[in-house]
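Batch job 17 of 40 flagged for manual review because the log was empty.
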Amino acid sequence: MTMPSAHTLYLADWVIPIARPPFRRGGIVVEGERIVAVGSEAQLRAQFPEAAVRDFGEAALLPGLVNVHAHVELTVLRGMVEDLPFVKWLAALTRLREWLSAEEVRESARAGVLEAIRSGQTTIVDVGATAAGFEALCESGVRGLFFQEVFGVRPEEAEDNLRPVVERVRELCARASPGVRVGLSPHAPYTVSASLFRRVAEHARANALPLCIHIAESRAEVEFVRYGRGEFAQIHERRGVMWRAPGVSPIRYLHDLGVLAARPLLVHGVHMEDEDIALVAESGAAIAHCPKSNAKLGHGVAPLPEWVRAGIAVGVGTDGVVSNNACDLFEEARFGLLLQRAHRASPVLLSAELMLRLLTLGGARALSLDARIGSLEPGKDADFIAVDLSGAHMRPVDDPIVALIFSARGSDVRFTAVGGRVLFDGTSITTLDEERVRARLREIRARVRQQRARIGD
């Protein structure tokens, strides 16, 4: 009786290791959770003659995509909060979110993770007010980092705001699957007091917890932090909350509070000046770049070229589909590159190669996971995807990186594996019941739509 091979050889017409240039007709060999070899088809077949073989043909093999910022629990609200100024958009989103039950939020999060896996995302950084995103990450088998949001604008209540969150994070850490980590996310300067920012950062550093912050996202935020005026200041005044503007940029504000010393993942960073970029680079903090959300909400164009030149670890995030409206990192990278070229009037600014690196090894570096994922190399975890190159919108392909960044869609992904485990086989997700989740999502959306019509919101 022949024993099944311990090795699986995955082949494709193109291999894009990221750590070295792409090459034709090759593949990778996976044993258990790890990649054990990368090379040409002839070389790998000779070295591993007993290996089971899966040949994707006219496709590209590459590392799994790393989404460094998402809000999967908001998936069911896609397309429901449109064409509003940012502060009004936040208020409308908050109101809709409050209509969802705990069970509905969990199903919404599952739907978001399903979409991500189908589009080739093997690592997802999710930020949420509830544990729904955490549970969806653990159930699905993806690699992930869940940030529990922290809110509290009254300085005198900082300890009371932090205490229950610390307990919740402790509980989540105890329940986490091997590939999922947990961290803290003090939301933003207009929803978190200076005292609470300090306490969260201190707790994160003392307990080796990752930190994530929405920062320098909008002009309204800059006006609030630097000048103490605008819509966020008015909201504080109406709530009877004392706010003394520090009179500096949002990034400088985090630095002065000691928060940058915790090396947080900074989300958006649209409004950053040279001094801010230098402070981030010096601190070792990383940045989650979300160009589509930044543009759709009218925030502006982030200084991506300057971040890259400063050596900052940058990854790309989709943000939530409520502000995007697609969880597609190929589309995100394409839009981000084209936006920069249009904004700077330069046809050579950035490159397809750089953007693909940000989707993979760059994102891994932003999460301090680059020793384990982000490239196809022997010894690394077998997080990889296969992308179909046979579509009419892709052919002909001479440079697979150019094809992926300028032509590919998330729907071109044909295979997704994390740690050698197949999560998407080209037909269906193997770890979650897609049909049930989709049906439930339709029901939830119909209920929310009816409630909205009834209330007249």
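Reviewer: the log was empty due to a logging misconfiguration, but the result itself is present. Residues 434-455 form the longest helix (22 residues). Unflagging and moving on to job 18.
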